[in-house]
Amino acid sequence: MSGLAGQSDKMCPQCKRVLAPTEFHRDRRRVDGLAFYCKACAAVRSAASRRKRGMAPKRRSAVPVAEGLKWCPDCDQIKPLADFPTTRTKASGRHSYCKPCHNARGKETAQRLYGGTREYHLRQRYGVGEKEFQELLAEQGGVCAICGGADPQHLDHDHRTGWVRGILCFNCNGGLGQFRDSPTRLARAITYLRGTTWQRALIHPGVYQMCSPTRGRPPSPRS
């Protein structure tokens, strides 16, 4: 037994060497908490992958990086750790690229693989694309499925099953969310709207009293 927290040595399937756990990068997604390949083989595989994709070799910071700071290889700047997105997949708890560069890479990937961020968002979250979105909108007559407003842009889905239900405008989509997609809450809201409106009752010529149809009494006077 050797290495971190009493972990056993591990064989790298690339070089077939049995190495200490410290010779492997951390990977919290794996059962043993260690990367599949040793550090040396992982570096070789990463470099080969970058060459295959026509990418420049991975660079390292030319100056030492102080504690609490991190170097971004894309913009070549040293920034506070808070400027890097958090992640559970790395031992440091931070992504390799700062937030602006991380976002730019995400947009580039979405554009390259899906033709744009909207297509990527629809595919990843709802399992449909822009083509299916437009077909569903056409079936609805080009209007919100609830209020009939023009040009709705929000794809509504059942949060329990994940199934797409229809396309709604911003207000209707938000309204369902506020009521937590609960038919019971929505039914009570309808009952409330229909049955609690204060009305004016004529009690003397020119004198009216406000009363509620459900309570049968006027509201309390304001102080």
TrEMBL record:
SUPFAM superfamilies reported in the protein's UniProt record: His-Me finger endonucleases (SSF54060)
UniProt cross-references to InterPro entries, sorted A to Z: Endonuclease_7 (IPR004211), Endonuclease_7_sf (IPR038563), His-Me_finger_sf (IPR044925)
MF-aspect GO terms: endonuclease activity
Keywords linked to the UniProt accession: Endonuclease, Hydrolase, Nuclease
Gene3D superfamilies per the UniProt record, alphabetical: His-Me finger endonucleases
Protein name: Endonuclease VII domain-containing protein
